[in-house]
TrEMBL record:
GO terms for molecular function: ATP binding; ATP hydrolysis activity. The keyword Membrane does not apply. Signal peptide: none annotated. Gene3D superfamilies: P-loop containing nucleotide triphosphate hydrolases. This is ABC transporter ATP-binding protein. InterPro entries: AAA+_ATPase, ABC_transporter-like_ATP-bd, P-loop_NTPase. Pfam families: ABC_tran. Residues 1-226 form the ABC transporter domain. Keywords: ATP-binding, Nucleotide-binding. It comes from the Bacteria. It comes from Vagococcus carniphilus.
Length: 295
């Protein structure tokens, strides 16, 4: 799937601006951004819940707007629309088997039995976590190629979350499905995604391959003799936190000459520590006024 120059305004306010990226076979891509940056709008525009202003969504170089049956290759899990929640799994299957011609009845029933669902009990009579698990089972039973999951871990306890993650990883591994997923749970996201898209001000501001970025980008904790941060650090480092005298920052490039120049300032402490997706998020969305609060 290729998202090409997609733009969308709501009430004349530009929410998405020239969004382009690809979702490849057997790949999990994470979409992260602060609340209100347009993640859900992007998902709804890709799947035509919202009509695009410009751009295109292509599958094998064919526009889904020109060949509408291609939409059957996409499943969008939107937690805010629960219009079938008062129906039983048996009734819900009757709807989705009409929408998806390759709906897998055996897989659907098998997974529901595995996780002890009552086929005749309405979904809204289950706990929130169990309802979320059901939606993922429904999604992967539709036998689509591309899955768009909006906050699938939201509010889930540890046990249900592990079940949801297991279903996602199995679908990608066994059926080479492609998954685009948003989550505020950056730790869970970091453990499963191949790439991360940062959505900022309605645009994809950065794209990260997590393995590559961890090899190149360094998270360092520093302490200097003077309270003022050396200019060479300010110029080359995104500071994400200050705790007392300890400064924590991200260096996108920490070459030998820069490293030696910083050591020449005679820091009390300059130590690399493990880098996480949460750190990358902080480096993109933290400003000086945020970390000043830690003084």
């Amino acid at each position: 799937m290729k998202i090409s120059h997609l733009s969308k305004s709501i009430k004349k306010y530009p929410v998405l601006k020239d969004i382009s990226f690809s979702l490849n076979k057997g790949e999990i891509v994470g979409l992260v951004g602060r609340n209100g940056t347009g993640k859900t709008t992007l998902f709804r525009t890709i799947t035509n819940f919202y009509q695009k202003d410009s751009g295109d969504v292509l599958i094998d170089s064919v526009s889904i707007y020109q060949k509408t049956d291609l939409k059957e290759t996409i499943f969008y899990l939107d937690d805010q629309y629960n219009f079938l929640n008062n129906q039983s799994p048996k009734t819900i299957e009757s709807y989705y088997s009409e929408l998806y011609q390759f709906f897998d009845h055996e897989k659907y029933v098998g997974l529901l039995k595995k996780y002890k669902f009552d086929m005749d009990l309405s979904i809204d009579r289950n706990s929130k976590g169990t309802q979320a698990l059901f939606k993922v089972i429904l999604a992967f039973s539709c036998h689509a190629n591309y899955y768009i999951l909006d906050e699938p871990f939201d509010g889930l306890d540890l046990i249900i979350r592990k079940k949801v993650i297991s279903l996602i990883l199995n679908e990608v591994s066994i059926n080479q499905a492609s998954v685009l997923i948003s989550s505020h749970n950056l730790l869970e996201l970091e453990n499963i995604v191949d790439h991360v898209l940062f959505l900022q001000d309605g645009m994809i501001s950065r794209t990260y391959n997590l393995e590559e970025i961890k090899e190149r980008t360094k998270k360092v904790q520093m302490v200097f003799k003077k309270k003022e941060i050396p200019s060479i650090v300010k110029e080359n480092c995104q500071i994400i936190q200050i705790q007392g005298r300890v400064i924590i920052g991200i260096f996108e490039q920490l070459e030998d000459d820069l490293y030696e120049a910083i050591l020449a300032t005679d820091p009390v402490l300059f130590e690399e520590v493990p880098l996480t997706l949460e750190d990358l998020f902080s480096s993109r969305f933290t400003s000086e006024i945020d970390y000043q609060l830690f003084h």
